[in-house]
Amino acid sequence: MSDAVQEKLPEVSMPKVRVQKVLAGQKALVTGANSGIGKAVAVALGEAGADVVVNYVVGEDAAQQVVEEIRSHGVDAIAVNADVSREDQVQAMFKQMFEKFGTIDILVNNAGLQRDAPFDRMTLEHWNFVIGVNLTGQFLCAREAVREFKRRGVVKSISCAAGKIICMSSVHEVIPWAGHANYAASKGGVMLMMKSMAQELAPYRIRINSIGPGAIRTPINTAAWSTPEAYEALMKLVPYKRIGEPDDVAQAAVWLASDAADYVNGTTLFVDGGMTLYPGFTEGG
Ligand code: BGC
């Protein structure tokens, strides 16, 4: 794009479009919901009418604030502490959810983290930590949710589906990422776990999909957007020429969880301003 065209771009921010209460009466669990994308998703699901479990591992006060914000939309919410990489804690969290809300309709497998290092300096501890939370954590939570979806089946007055799982993946399920081999491997793993689950569970009317966020303004990637120089470098990777906001992802999650997306199963919805479009090939090649 020429500089002249670039200069004409308006200062854009994301539009605030709200679909009303499409998730009324549904029970949702969002992992890692006390900050960043998870927080925005948890609030948006509440705004759309769902009761929400706000999972967190550290940061109880922040989780409680998210609970209050969700309740301000006239639905119920609770904060539940659990490390998603620990089977016993995940099972205890689902037990607490079922005691409070009776069942689960929507799981958003969001909890995730990065521990970056050049490959030859990556420790086994950092490898296992990232795989443990980002991949094993999604497996453990999804397994508990699927057990309940299968046990309960479809409740037509609530949803056409017996249950919905949204896996928070990343553009790095398809874009290799030097210096982040553990993270990219975890997200590549999420992609095929999600698709395998979707194939296996579709006959039970259980829908599994992923969201693949690009660069979203959250604490996980502060270094990539918090200075003008970093932001300018980041924009070279984003054809749409703005950073994503957590609510961009949250609105996609509401739609994927709703019956409006009933025929959508086993796919990754990239919410990335075009980051997966090989922007390096805009010219040349
Ligand atoms: C990572 C961010 C990164 C983005 C785009 C995300 O999955 O967590 O740190 O900015 O991908 O590269």
Structure commentary:
This protein is α/β, with parallel strands linked by helices. The chain has one domain: Rossmann fold (3-Layer(aba) Sandwich), CATH 3.40.50. Helices cover 40% and strands 13% of the residues. It contains eight helices and seven strands, in the order αβαβαβαβαβαβααβ. It has a seven-stranded parallel β-sheet with strand order 3-2-1-4-5-6-7, with helices on both faces. Helix 2 crosses helix 8 and helix 4 runs parallel beside helix 5. It starts with a helix and ends in a 14-residue tail after the last strand. The structure holds beta-D-glucopyranose. Beta-D-glucopyranose binds next to loops.
Low-confidence regions: none
Q: Mind describing the biggest β-sheet? A: 7 strands, parallel
Count the strands?
Answer: 7
CATH level-3 fold name:
Rossmann fold
CATH architecture descriptor: 3-Layer(aba) Sandwich
Bound molecules: beta-D-glucopyranose
Regarding CATH, which class? Answer: Alpha Beta
Quaternary state reads: single chain
User: How many individual domains?
Assistant: 1
Radius of gyration (CA) equals: 19 Å
Strand content: 5-15%
Q: Can you tell me the overall shape?
A: globular
Structural class: alpha/beta
Instruction: Summarize model confidence as the mean pLDDT.
Output: 95
Identify the strand order in the major beta sheet. 3-2-1-4-5-6-7
Contiguous helical run count: 8
String of helices and strands = HEHEHEHEHEHEHHE
Share of helix, binned: 40-55%
